[in-house]
Amino acid sequence: MQSLDDFAAGKLRELDRNNLHRVLAETDRLDGVWVERAGRRLISFCCNDYLNLSHHPTIKAAAPPEIERNGVGSGAARLDTGNHPLFAELESRLARLKGSEAACVFGSGYLANAGIIPALIGPADLVLIDELSHACLWTGARLSRATVLPFRHSDTAHVEALLGSHRARHSRALIATDGVFSMDGDLAPLPQLAALAKRFDAWLMTDDAHGLGVIGGGRGSTFAFATPIDVQLQMGTLSKAIGGYGGYLCASDPVIDLIHNRARTFVYATGLPPAMVAAALAALDLIEREPGYAALPLIKAKTFTRLTGLPEAQSPIVPLIIGEAEPALEASRLLEAEGFLVTAIRPPTVLDGTARLRFTFTAAHPDAEIERLAALVRKVLPRRILPNHVESVAP
Ligand SMILES: Cc1ncc(COP(=O)(O)O)c(C=O)c1O
User: pTM higher than 0.90 for the full model?
Assistant: First the structure.
């Protein structure tokens, strides 16, 4: 048999050949915007800390007293002794913000998604999932052992057709989608998906990792439309706009009770450190107190799309699709030489042939830097990297 090392080396050679080998780069995040890499100070346009709360003085101040009182870890799963009283407070705050009866905090967003669907959906059931949904939503769907059918990105006619031909053969059905798509920044067509869910007796689940704090007045994608959408399962993370770490599900009382009993990634995983829970509470306070601040990342993203002529931003995430991996890497290197950190996103994170730069905007990005970045994207990238994109990028 081939040795394990030979096997790994062979796989890595294949990744190298396709420009898909990834390596960890040490990054010192100096504040919510600036980073240091290999001794260079760069301004990051690729972080999910949309409100810069990871470094906000008020949020940081919430953690040390909890470390002092309760230590650095929670010590056990929440169903054992890891259920610090602050969890109940955080969960009721999340539920209030998302307009649900209850909430459940998980160790991370990935753990939430890996646990929620298998707790509610089984082999006799159907999951329809947007093809561009985040990897961990796919993980949950696959772990459920249900029939999993992807639908074309945001194509509600395709969802309708799939429900029409498959729904009757399954006992329960779930439509699962990102609320804000992590690599494309667009919003899911939630009003139409909710109407289809109702018509075909299906449940609707959103992964709103990139919606909380920055879309719909800070309440997420459910609230980004003319009226709030009926989404029975609103999942999200505390690791992006909230600035810390952790995941959650907002749903009805009985669903959350069932999750406590059946979601394996909740039952068998250690609870979040209490200091992280305290920081998340402080972050929610700030988001609710300062809606003007929470609106800034989207405003900044719209400034960038206006200056570059890219399609108007719907969220703080703006993709510039380049195509193959190598020119995407080259574009990233070129921006880095100018002081901007914008990582290239390559398959399998995105579909083959859609490697891209993914720009993310935060409340604290200086407008002058956005203008300088936009000028590079408009003038330099088309000439140096994207000869075929000159017309699509130039305003
Ligand atoms: C859409 C989406 N869902 C879920 C996750 C996972 O959340 P976490 O980082 O808290 O595990 C991410 C983060 O990468 C994400 O982008």
Answer: yes
